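Consider the following assembly input.
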Amino acid sequence: MATQSLIGTKNRAGQVVADAWKLLHEAERTPCFYTGSEVIKEAVRRANCDVMIAYPITPQSEAAALIGELFAEGFIGDYFRGESEFAVMSQCAGAAFGGARVFTTTAGPGTMRAMENFPMWAGARLPIQMIVTCRGINSPLSIQPDTLEISYLLNTGMLVWHAETAQDFYDWILKGYMVSEEPDVHLPLALCCDGFFVTHTKDVVNLTPADMCLPPYDPYRSPVPCMDMECPPVRMMRDPFVMKSNYISYATHASWQQEVWAAIERSRKHTIRWLDGLIEVDRPDAEILIVSSGTAVSQGREAQALLEEDGIDVGIVKIKSLRPWPGDEIREATKNAKHIIVPEFNVTGWLAKEIRATIPDADRVYAGPHVCGGMTMPPEVIAADLKKHLGLKSESLAGRGS
Amino acid sequence: MSKERIKIAPEMFDIMPEEYQDLVERATYGKEGRGWKDIGTSKELIEEHSLCAGCPESMAFRYILASLPAPEDTVMVGSTGCTSLVFPHVGVHNIHSLFGNQNAIASGLKRALSVRFPGQVKDVVVLAGDGATVDIGLDMTLQAWFRQEKFTTICFDNELYANTGGQESGLMQKGFVAKMAPVGKTFEKVKLPEIARESGCHYVVNCTVSKPNLVEKVIKNAIHVAREIGPTYLQLYTPCILEIGKNSMEGLQEMRDSEKPTERFAYKEYVSDQAKELLTELAAKEKERKAAAKKQLADKQLAGQA
């Protein structure tokens, strides 16, 4: 167990362990033109990870394979390909139980196959980071961008963030460990992005120095014992609660579930500090707001510019963290809005439902447009839907029957 | 684990639970040559349990925990089932996560411990029922063996799903009438020991837990081989007396009947050449250790007489 600061020492790859705040806020940044997958690799290079476990599924396969190269170069303690997403997420759990900083990636049907693991991760308080490069989960088979899988993650007890850009991704992978490994949090993080749009496009991303890395994970700061036999092996109880049908048993389970959700609440202060707020607001005084997450925000910005040309003033609310949910922030940001438009890359509009459940006068929310199955979301569609909602005339868009 | 880590501050000693004081004072963590004969003379790593009266699993648990070569550096991985009701009572770190994923958990755990404690002994032992090992978790059982993960897999084979009330399992005998096999099981008992051998396990044993000395031997062999070479597999018959219509006192006889040479739990062993070499080496060292201990005792007695 380390009792002295490790800042300034070197890790297994010879990188200098940096103060995480200084690394991310003060260290010199170098602009690079990379795909999202390459950006994931570059973030993991600097994350001082102990174990990464991989499995191929589009569109995260490239990132998972690139991290294998990092292992070959000595940046990661161990790396292997598991046999399925269910197995991989269990292997990640095993490694985290054993005190390792763990990283993995998945997508779409892989997320669904692995689902049984996620409430277990949260309940066991394992601060694993999982990148979710969202894609369709429907049948017939689709590999195209679609964010429906995020809605299934929202009630697992994991932290859930939704990155808009590759730059978000880069910073949030590193910041994610800092939040999820806090002793009063110690929960897994699902760091989501819209597959292909972020993973397979190139963008300029400002990277921190490659010879500097995060401080290592200290498993002895965990609120539950690390399973390495380096602390006393208490015999936990005389009667396992699973077998009991009595009040104490129910109360134990109930309080543990409440504790997981309380830990999500406690992550709020850390998330606000590291992400500079759970939401980002542009033109808060506008009467019309586009509120969204992921790349729908980028499309919203384009729509904002189009609408401005027509003299319609629109503000943007970018939701960065879905768990913890920025309820107060959204209420505050939307207090003067008369119309709230929520564009989403999924068929059910789960984000609009969350927002409606959060704000007063929920009929201000217009849920849409919804595109799914890989459809793109042209800003013209957002602008047209908004105008239609406002009762204004808009140009007819070919093929949409409007 | 250093024994120092489990010392209780003197000021706190009397307020710790008696169980815990006993574990610190009288358990056999770190004792060389520990084994089933310590039962009754030292603090066991399990005593009370929540299994049925007379359940052979409880005997198996006692023998196994008494035989771990290094419990102070052993982490066990369980699965859902009767075994998961016992693990909370066990005096080594143990993990329950889901049903059937035990060999995946153990794979990640063993690798993490190898990264964090390079060159140090950190044994990982999986202990799960036959439903977890052979049915729902079969892919993860086999894949861990294919990958040559360095841990031991123990299957408590009671030939059915005991904890959920006696349903058919892959290790059930053909023709056995059970819940979910209303006209008798229609296919043969899965031959997992043979599959284990073909899948890359270096030490495989199929037996009952009727003889504690045999259990001790196979546990120690399996863990040493896994530590040094690669995966090992033990399939131990622990009949569910409740579900096969036996009384509490009849578990031992059931095991004795099933281990006769023509029966399905007749002792069967496979040892790879690499493992044979290691076990021969370890046996020679153990012989030396015992001879030295004997000599030391004799010298001491002699000195006492003088």
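Residues 237 and 249 of chain A are 12 Å apart (CA to CA). Ask yourself how this observation constrains the way the partners meet.
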